[in-house]
Every structure is written in structure tokens, then in C-alpha cells.
Design goal:
The chain has three helices and two strands. Strands 1-2 form a two-stranded parallel ribbon. Helix 1 packs across helix 2. The longest helix has 18 residues. The chain starts with 20 loop residues before the first helix and ends with a helix.
Length: about 100
């Protein structure tokens, strides 16, 4: 198991914090240490939305796709897509997510 670091937190505290879920997904998708090893994404609550977006980025960017996406304590993909869109709208309107 390899936890994904979030810019501005943990070992990545020196980096500018991410304020855009989709940019964070791109950063994470491109930083997964694969070395040809199959991988799965696991996320709980907001982490499930992030894992879903990482999987979408991997698919669109022709990166190796996860063999599984495990989303816990989160609605299904149709709802997640609407939920994720609401972050884009809120960010566009207010300049922040929270």
C-alpha cells in the first residue's frame, strides 16, 4: 500500500496546497509509483471522489488503469460526477472549495 501525498500536507507540506480536485487528481495519477505492478485505488468519503477522479485521469491520459476502484462511504459514480461538478462550480464562483 502506498498512500498518495496531497500537496501542502504530510511529506509534501512544502508544496503549494491543491485547491482544485481535478488538478489534484492529475498530480496523483502521474505520481503513482507503478513499475509495471497492478494497482488499485481505495478511498473513503472525499477520498473516494479523489480516487474516482484519479482513475478517470489515468484512463484519459493513457496511463495504466487501476485493476480496482474501491469507494467507501460515498455515493455511486453518477452522484460522484454531480458532486465533483459542484466543486468546479463552487471554485469558479468563490475561488475556494470549502
Amino acid at each position: 500500500m502506498v498512500p498518495l501525498e496531497t500537496p501542502g500536507r504530510g511529506r509534501s507540506a512544502h508544496l503549494k496546497p491543491a485547491d482544485d480536485l481535478f488538478e489534484l487528481a492529475k498530480i496523483n495519477a502521474n505520481s503513482i509509483p507503478l513499475d509495471g505492478v497492478p494497482y488499485a485505488l481505495v478511498g473513503t468519503s472525499m477520498g473516494a471522489v479523489r480516487a474516482y477522479e484519479i482513475a478517470r485521469v489515468a484512463e484519459r491520459a493513457n496511463l495504466p488503469k487501476p485493476m480496482a476502484l474501491i469507494a467507501v462511504a460515498c455515493p455511486g459514480p453518477t452522484t460522484v460526477e454531480a458532486y465533483a461538478r459542484s466543486f468546479r462550480v463552487k471554485l469558479a464562483q468563490t475561488g475556494r472549495i470549502g
